[in-house]
Structures are given as C-alpha cells and as structure tokens.
Write a structure and sequence with these properties.
Layout (H helix, E strand, L loop, with lengths): L11 E9 L8 H12 L4 E6 L3 E3 L10 E10 L3 H14 L14 E7 L7 H8 L3 H6 L16 H10 L12 H6 L3 H4 L3 E2 L1
Antiparallel strand pairs: 1-4, 1-5, 2-4, 3-4, 3-6
Amino acid sequence: MQRDNYSQFAKNRAVFAFGGNLDSSEGGVADTIASAIDTLGYNSIDVTACSKFYQTPCFPEGMGPDYVNLVAIVETTLPPHQLLDVLHRIEAQFQRARGVRWAGRTLDIDILAYENCILPNLEVYTEWRDLPAETQRNATPEQLILPHPRIEDRGFVLIPLCEVWPDWRHPVSGKTAQMLCDALPASEINGIKPL
C-alpha cells in the first residue's frame, strides 16, 4: 500500500542528504553544498536544520577523493516528484555530471524521506532495499523511491541525521534514526568525522 501522507497545500517535512567530492565553480565541496543550500530557498524549499559537514571515505575505495556530507531537514509545499526535479536542476547548476554510478561528483542531493511516504509502493521499495551489493553498483531506479532504500546502511547519512533529528522514524521499519545508527557495523562508521 502506498502512503501519500502529505498535503499539496501545506508545508511537508523532508530529509535531504548532500554530498560531493569534486570542486565546482563555487570552490571546494563544502562551498558548493553551502551554495546549493542557499539556492533551496528560491525554489519553495525552507531549510529548518542542517548538520555539520562530515568527511567520509570515498566508496568504492580508490574511486576518488573523500566525500563531504551533510543532512538537512526542510519544509516544502512541493510534492515529492516535483521536489526531485528541482533538486536535479540544482545539481546541474553546480556542474553535477551523471555518468558512472558512484563516480566522483561536485554535488549530490538525495531525498532520504518525505513525511511518512512510501513511494511508489512498499513492494518496489522492498525490492530496491534488498538488492545485493553487486547489483546496487549497476542498477539505478527509473523512479523516485522513498524512503531512500539505502538509508539504513549508510553511516554518512545516519550520523549527520542523528545530529539534527535523532527521533526521525523510518516509515517502514519504525526504527528511529538513532536506533538505525546504533545498529551500524563499525565498518560503516570508521573514517566518518566532522570537518
């Protein structure tokens, strides 16, 4: 069952993950992310909280410089698919090139969650969440999937999310951000540090 627990007219809360590991015309990665956050306000997206910047080891190892990551909580009247379109335009504005999966990038903005939405439905969400690691490297969904199917596995998302919203509750598992973070193996946390 799909849950569309949002209103087209009220402000809805969403969680974004920002990341990058290549310089842009704005300068270093932190400068690019900060400028992208400033740009959100011109697109009907109000930032209500931001984590610190974190340095994260590049994955897969050896694919480039370490990443800079940040999580932001936002409010918006835009529905999820329109919001994704806006984020893709902002990424392009900051020279994001889409090519090889998990290749270096100037800016990546992911919608981690949008209210309690499960999109497009629980079956598709579960299919993408359960993909084997090798398949994840080559497969990209053709549609928006919410919550982000990898959120439970990623220290570089959960650590900053816990800083700004530790009580955020996953709409499928029901676990809080802090519970998910506490369950991460050491390999997913090692090397992640505040800048």
